[in-house]
């Protein structure tokens, strides 16, 4: 009986052996890679050494113009060097305020993230803010928010006849004088120059309509007066269509 000759064993490239071994152990390799990634993430997110400060952050997406509640906020520990400038440290500082822009979860909130109180905050119910343009902006040089003014209107350009449209009206806002310049396009703040002469006063709604009606007609000026005392003349109830003419 003759023996059958054995065929020589085929040799495969080393790279093929490696790919085959990796394919058979791909689950083990994937688990090892996943563990490495998790370890790196933990190290990256771990609090760094050094002092931290409390920073108020949003816990959910909030649209612009929405009121902020305590449930919308949380406090995170930020490294002192990475804390945003002006960031709030206590949720009570922002609760109840209105967002000036949209926020996303985890976004730090600063004082500029919410709008300031309105001009009518703390004013009597039913009072309206009226914007007037004073023909002589110099008359507003010493007027500040919180002062009281008499609003005087001259129907004609000559100004021989002047009507007192309001006495002792509270000043809610007054435009600041623009910075000095040479009058060029780049001199000073163009927005401040456009606001020059603007004055916002508080008035009852029906009286605010009449005050707004004089805009662009004749000449309007404001006279700084002492604050009206309790129960005394002045305030929004001092407006009257027949307030009479003021002397020259």
From TrEMBL:
Which Pfam families does this UniProt record tie to the protein? SAF
Q: Which InterPro entries match?
A: Pilus_assmbl_Flp-typ_CpaB, SAF, TAT_signal
> Where does the SAF domain start and stop, copy by copy?
53-115
Where does the record place the region Disordered?
227-248
Q: Which NCBIfam families match?
A: pilus_cpaB (TIGR03177)
Recorded protein name is: SAF domain-containing protein
Q: Give the originating organism.
A: Kocuria flava
